[in-house]
């Protein structure tokens, strides 16, 4: 993995993710070079990180506005795309108590909409009915399909939202393979958390079921070919949902999570070998679960295990994992695979150094991971 900062895994992870999502490496160098001396300050430097990236986002937004005023829609859209990305990178590593975090997030949402509008991206902004409210989502229709098409529900992870996943490109790749995608901010992530106050809970089949209900109302979706995929902590979200929401036709765990309680306990105790995805993991886990203390959050995570769950999963499942994942042990992927005894088709794909993609959710080689998952989904659903 490209490591710009010595000993700061969350910042290096963010840079690699940004590169996968279309960032410009010289712009990254420009914003990160002044942060090198602060990289060892950990949580204390999260505000500096956020301000630096947001300033870059401001610049791209100004340039995009100038292009738009001149009638250069595509040039404007390309700049708004990077502006949205940089503001999301800024927001993701900031404290939930920093008022600027919500400011940067809402700014990113506006820039993302401008990007979609000006670039004529095949994206529909939708709201999925959910328990008297709605879940914000993006619907990307299949390309080149006459009649109802397969569709994948895409849930997020611990600290990822639907816009980041769209910029990653997996929805585009599925669309090109004739599969629609519903990218969803479910409780605990993205706009559902930040704008609606919906916090995370273990029973992910509940929001997944709401998504299936919604997709069944769309004529362009084949109701018999709706699957689910989720990234990182989604390695728990997706298998849990598929185990109990029997309308789901397949499942992809993009990075395995066998026992989130156990790994959270280790992270809370700051044990060695447990790399953190965000700078202030303690603050973020309380934010995601809506608790006042870490202990309250950990009590919820102890219910987030696939033990006793996986035998209920009967649809096809793919589990992907990097052999060098520093956040989650490879053993979690093996356990998930071995427990899927009733799946009609189970597969474990471990990415090795020989091919690339050994880090968490293939952040070191996103195309390899994306291609493999999308091909598997196509083979199963088409």
Key terms:
single chain; 382 residues; alpha/beta; 2 domains; eight-stranded mixed β-sheet; 15 helices; globular
Task: Report what the structure shows.
It is a single chain. The protein has 382 residues and is α/β, with parallel strands linked by helices. The chain folds into two domains: 9-118, Up-down Bundle (de novo design (two linked rop proteins)); 124-381, Rossmann fold, CATH 3.40.50.1820. It contains 15 helices and eight strands. It has an eight-stranded mixed β-sheet, with helices on both faces. Helix 14 (330-339) links the parallel strand 7 and strand 8 (346-351). Helix 3 (46-69) packs parallel to helix 5, helix 4 packs antiparallel against helix 5 and helix 11 (260-268) runs antiparallel to helix 13. The longest helix is centred in the first third of the chain and has 24 residues, at 46-69. The chain is globular. The mean pLDDT is 96.
For the largest sheet, list the strands in their spatial order.
1-2-4-3-5-6-7-8
Largest sheet: 8 strands, mixed
What structural class do you assign from the helix and strand content?
Answer: alpha/beta
Low-confidence stretches: none
CATH homologous group name of the largest domain: Alpha/Beta hydrolase fold, catalytic domain
Number of helices: 15
Q: Encode the helix/strand succession as letters.
A: HHHHHEEEHHEHHEHEHHHEHEH
What percentage of the residues does DSSP assign to strands (E)? 5-15%
Helix content: 40-55%
Average pLDDT, to the nearest integer? 96
Distance between the termini: 34 Å
Name of the CATH first level of the largest domain: Alpha Beta
Report Rg: 20 Å
CATH architectural arrangement of the largest domain: 3-Layer(aba) Sandwich
Remind me, CATH topology of the largest domain?
Rossmann fold
General form: globular
């Amino acid at each position: 993995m490209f490591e710009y900062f010595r000993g700061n895994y969350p910042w290096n992870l963010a840079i690699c993710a940004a590169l996968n999502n279309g960032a410009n490496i010289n712009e990254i160098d420009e914003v990160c070079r002044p942060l090198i001396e602060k990289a060892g300050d950990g949580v204390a430097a999260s505000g500096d990180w956020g301000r630096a990236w947001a300033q870059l986002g401001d610049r791209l937004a100004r340039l995009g506005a100038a292009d738009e005023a001149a009638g250069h829609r595509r040039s404007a859209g390309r700049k708004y795309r990077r502006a949205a990305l940089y503001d999301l990178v800024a927001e993701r590593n900031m404290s939930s108590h920093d008022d600027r975090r919500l400011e940067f997030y809402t700014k990113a949402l506006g820039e993302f909409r401008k990007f979609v509008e000006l670039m004529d991206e095949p994206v529909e902004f939708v709201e999925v009915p959910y328990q008297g409210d709605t879940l914000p989502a993006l619907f990307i229709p299949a390309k080149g399909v006459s009649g109802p098409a397969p569709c994948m529900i895409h849930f997020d992870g611990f600290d990822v939202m639907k816009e980041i996943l769209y910029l990653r490109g997996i929805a585009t790749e599925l669309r090109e393979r004739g599969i629609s995608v519903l990218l969803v901010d479910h409780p605990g992530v993205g706009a559902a958390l930040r704008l609606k106050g919906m916090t995370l809970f273990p029973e992910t089949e509940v929001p997944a079921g709401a998504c299936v209900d919604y997709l069944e109302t769309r004529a362009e979706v084949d109701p018999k070919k709706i699957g689910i995929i989720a990234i990182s902590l989604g390695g728990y979200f997706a298998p849990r949902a598929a185990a109990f929401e029997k309308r789901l036709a397949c499942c992809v765990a993009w990075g395995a999570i066998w026992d989130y309680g156990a790994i959270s306990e280790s992270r809370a105790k700051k044990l060695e070998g447990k790399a953190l995805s965000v700078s202030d993991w303690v603050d973020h886990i309380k934010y995601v679960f809506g608790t006042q203390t870490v202990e309250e959050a950990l009590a919820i995570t102890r219910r987030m295990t696939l033990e006793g769950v996986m035998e209920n999963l009967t649809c096809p499942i793919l589990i992907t994992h990097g052999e060098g994942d520093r956040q989650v042990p490879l053993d979690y992927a093996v356990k998930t695979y071995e427990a899927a005894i009733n799946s009609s088709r189970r597969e474990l794909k471990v990415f090795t150094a020989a091919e690339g993609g050994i880090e968490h959710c293939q952040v070191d080689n996103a195309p390899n991971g994306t291609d493999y998952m999308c091909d598997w989904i196509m083979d199963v659903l088409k």
